[in-house]
Amino acid sequence: MPPPNKNTPTVRRILKEAKELSEPDKDIHAAPTEDNLFEWHFIIRGPPSSPYEEGYYHGRINLPSNYPLAPPSFRFLQDSGRFDVNKEICLSISNFHVEEWLPAWGIRTALVALRSFMATEANGAVGSIDGVPDETKREIARNSREFKCSTCGGQRNYELLCATTEGGSTNEPQLEASVVYRSVEQQSGNNSGDKLQREAPKHTGSIDGSGQDVSTQQIEHASQGIFRNKLTVIVSVLVAIWAVRFLL
């Protein structure tokens, strides 16, 4: 898939969010896949004080072509005891409720809401499941950290999420911006450089010790000389007028 055009508002917004979400976070990880800027994978840590507390849950986000004017869709790629596997979830911040979506919201906002939503009752919502015992949810949560996604390079959930040790130090790989994000940035930078190079004025002449173009210096000196000559003529004319008036 060719790199997307960074100059569109949608891509600029997505790249901005990708950069912001590349910072390590102990509760949320999200990044575009390597070959599609509009498909993201995420991992959220289970909400505290819930049967999901020890869990690391992996899912997928699909962004619409007119994002952020329209909301994304969400689905989980592994068992959580709360949501169906590989089925879109009905949320107020998902594509099931376009009328409630605000463009000011973003992927992080949506994932924070999704994480909080896990601890609520399913109540028959699309993509949710009911009747799973809390002990089963806890067992699923304990096993969830080992889940590996082939799209994310086969890394385990806790490796991608930068789990923090009890001592407060991080012993997992640091999160980085998506390869897509870096490649688009690099390509955009190269294109900008080419444009600047094409638009840059072409000078002739050598460079002196000060780093200035010699021809530019010559032009500046010539301009200064012309200005001094004009000033001399003006002063001479004023003196002549004053002298004539004095004689009269």
From TrEMBL:
SUPFAM superfamilies the record matches: UBC-like
Residue ranges of the region described as Disordered: 187-215
Ranges for domain UBC core: 9-160
MF annotations from Gene Ontology: ATP binding
Alphabetic keyword roster: ATP-binding, Nucleotide-binding, Ubl conjugation pathway
UniProt cross-references to SMART domains, sorted A to Z: UBCc
Record's keyword annotation contains ATP-binding: yes
Name used for this protein in its record: UBC core domain-containing protein
